[in-house]
Amino acid sequence: MRTLGDTHDTALLRRLNTRAILLALRQSGPQTLTQLARAAGLSRQTAEAALSDLTERGLAREVAPTEGRAGRPARRFTFRAEAGHVLGLDVGPRRILAMLADLNGDVIEERRLDADEHTPAAERLVLAERAATACVEAAGSARGGLWAAAAGTSGVVDRSGRVSVSTIVPGWTGLDLAGQVGRWFGCPGFAANDANLAAVAEHWRGSARHVDDLVYVLAGYRSGHGLLLDGRLRTGRTGSAGELGGLPLSGWEDSSVVLAEAGRDAAEIFEAAREGDEQALAVVDRLAHGIARGASALVLVVDPELVVVGGGFSRGGESLLARIRAHLAEMCLNPPEVTLSTFGEESIALGAVRMALDHVERERLGL
Amino acid sequence: MRTLGDTHDTALLRRLNTRAILLALRQSGPQTLTQLARAAGLSRQTAEAALSDLTERGLAREVAPTEGRAGRPARRFTFRAEAGHVLGLDVGPRRILAMLADLNGDVIEERRLDADEHTPAAERLVLAERAATACVEAAGSARGGLWAAAAGTSGVVDRSGRVSVSTIVPGWTGLDLAGQVGRWFGCPGFAANDANLAAVAEHWRGSARHVDDLVYVLAGYRSGHGLLLDGRLRTGRTGSAGELGGLPLSGWEDSSVVLAEAGRDAAEIFEAAREGDEQALAVVDRLAHGIARGASALVLVVDPELVVVGGGFSRGGESLLARIRAHLAEMCLNPPEVTLSTFGEESIALGAVRMALDHVERERLGL
DNA sequence: CTCAATTATGAGAAGACGCGACGTAAAGCT
DNA sequence: AGCTTTACGTCGCGTCTTCTCATAATTGAG
Prior knowledge:
Two copies of one chain form a homodimer.
Chain A: H1 10-27, E1 31-32, H2 33-40, H3 44-56, E2 60-63, E3 76-79, E4 85-91, E5 95-102, E6 107-114, H4 121-138, E7 146-153, E8 156-157, E9 163-165, H5 177-185, E10 189-193, H6 194-205, E11 214-218, E12 224-229, E13 232-233, H7 255-262, H8 266-274, H9 278-302, E14 306-310, H10 317-331, E15 337-340, H11 347-364
Parallel strand pairs in A: 4-7, 7-10, 11-14, 14-15
Antiparallel strand pairs in A: 1-3, 2-3, 4-5, 5-6, 8-9, 11-12, 12-13
Helix pairs in contact in A: 1-2, 1-3, 2-3, 6-11, 7-9, 8-9, 9-10
Chain A binds a DNA duplex through helix 1 and helix 3.
Organism (chains A, B): Nonomuraea maritima
Keywords (chains A, B): Kinase, Transferase
Protein name (chains A, B): Sugar kinase of the NBD/HSP70 family, may contain an N-terminal HTH domain
């Protein structure tokens, strides 16, 4: 039955200590046995045992000792990030981006393919697979060598990684994206909503590095909200957390309407605004207002530490941000910080990488 | 430094196993050594060691063996719930409720005092202390014998347990409620928003027992929203999660306005509605609409498994609930279940009990 | 080139814990 | 009284961790 926790024999200690060493190992480059032991809070002997275990499993490697220092040279070990690879995919309405990363999450290969809004589902999937395969092959990794893969896409993606609602991408509704991606490479596959993955990426290495509660606003041709609480993605029961579709917010304008009225596309508007064009500034303000309106619902509900603005409009830069801040301050008693996305359009694929890594770390590294 | 986890010596095993035994012990009444060992997944010897440890700490007690069975009588142990007590307080605008509970969370004493909206802060605190002290003394427990105490109140309560905004209770803003409560009994003190604590109570033993993501709607003279995600209370950065004050929701009527227009109080309305009074039914529908409007924001943002409706209006019963469900279904694509609160007006104090117990379990029982 | 100083390694002993096994104790049943 | 049943309690073993100390490998000074 085992409902009250796992077995607690001495093997658990070994696992825990190996885990501590692995974490210490990944903190930085090659380290000596003593350094690792101290970092993990263990004795040198225990550290040694853990390292020999990790080395056997291919996760650690001994490297040449440093020269030029007095005393017996210390054995040095490093994390074998190349022991496995994960794939992150962004299958967007207009763009497909594949990233191959090692176990450190460092991106090794990257492929980008263009699509358009009308590309049918089957063809879009072929493009995605092509981009992904190109990455894997370029890295010289065997096709079956992937440890996990994840994909982000527009629309509501449920817990199992199936697209349950998609209004933008034709033929997407009902697609088992996670299963598809997993089948391509014979590895565990995952899928999530694009804004959610972008939030994950920003929290991992981007603007939201230092916070654990954040709202990500994807604003642009693709739009949506991502929610990260306690450092964990929150997609909700059906995966539609943050999808405000039905919320009757007064004065909530869709950006496409605003842009259509203005008769110019976003890039032109931002460019003109930068040059002081009054009409463009007004449009930027209306866009900011709409973004803030949507964000305010999330902010008031979860009271996050940070709002990260990403997506195409984030090219609007600080001027757009300033307007969003101003509008948000009007709507919230105690508004959170608002900042720009670090990774821009790469954040979705990067978040997918992180999602795949999460699985690998949990299941294969035992972290 | 110790950032990578605690020491992992064999003492950890002991702690973990003792914890497993403690959990098993609390699952039900007196159990034999063998039963406990099996439930915790440990050997009998280990279970025995853990139990002797727990007995020494006063958390377990050996009881008389069962008679009438063949074989050597088995030693039986039980959790000593009376080893400590916690206090839960609801300091509301119109009512003060104190509950004293043992370590099982079973309420032993309960005191209720009436106040009104105009009672000044100092006097309200005196009433609260009086109710609490009465509970403690009635239980024959020493005044210093409390292990933890928590209080719920209207308004925004920050992480530290300080009331940062209170519109209902006069003089409440700025009050360090957690500190106050702790000082009364010389024990750790906590405080939180009432709707949040109600959510905690419903999740603990009420309607939300079986789910981990829920939205609680406090509807009545006191109103507000409580948010529980992954079984944990979410109060946000400043404690104002779920406070929708500034959200420009179209068609969001305040219940007090609706009732004022109707010219009857809530109890009358619900009574009349039960008898089929058409005008009353219309008012109930308007109330339900308002409740659903507010709830919809939380539901769309976090996509919970369940919405629990509590507070004074929950006396409106199934008929109100049905209207709320109907309105919510219009606003959400995939509406969650909606159910009535189990504990009604007691849920806030009960949630406070749970909050105090959380601290005790974490810090004193090591769970 | 040699020797001291430095730094890390590796083996051995001791302590703590958990588990399986076996003999023993205490009850009911015949 | 003896048998059966059930659980207790002790013993020994293996694992894990840490401490200690002798040993090994390097640098740098004379």
